[in-house]
Amino acid sequence: MPAASGNYPLLTKLRHGPELTPCSLNPDTGLVQLQGGDQGVAPGQFSVLYAGEYCLGGGRICADEVSTGQG
Fold it and tell me: Under a CB-based contact definition with an 8 Å cutoff, are residues 5 and 27 in contact?
């Protein structure tokens, strides 16, 4: 179910390891926004999206799409 903002609340996994990061997906743009950010995100890495324990899919992070939200 979409959140009030129109974004879908999800979890994403970046890099190897057990950590899942809360995020939201904007269905209009396809952009994923991390809650709290992650300074280690880099082009060429993959992001895998989860809704609870269900894997929805993933994709490669593009150079022109990475923004730290700082500055």
Answer: no
Rg over alpha carbons for the chain, rounded to the nearest Å, is 12
Q: Tell me the three state secondary structure of residue 65.
A: helix
Over residues 41-51, the pLDDT tens digits come to: 888 888 899 99
Sign of CA pseudo-dihedral 15, 11, 66, 46: positive
Q: What are phi and psi of 40, to 5 degrees?
A: -90, 0
Q: Which of 39, 40, 46 is nearest to 62 (CA)?
A: 46
Both tokens of residue 52? 């609870």
Task: Write out the DSSP string of 31-57.
Answer: -EEESS--TT--TT-EEEEEETTEEEE
For the whole model, what pTM was predicted? Answer: 0.70
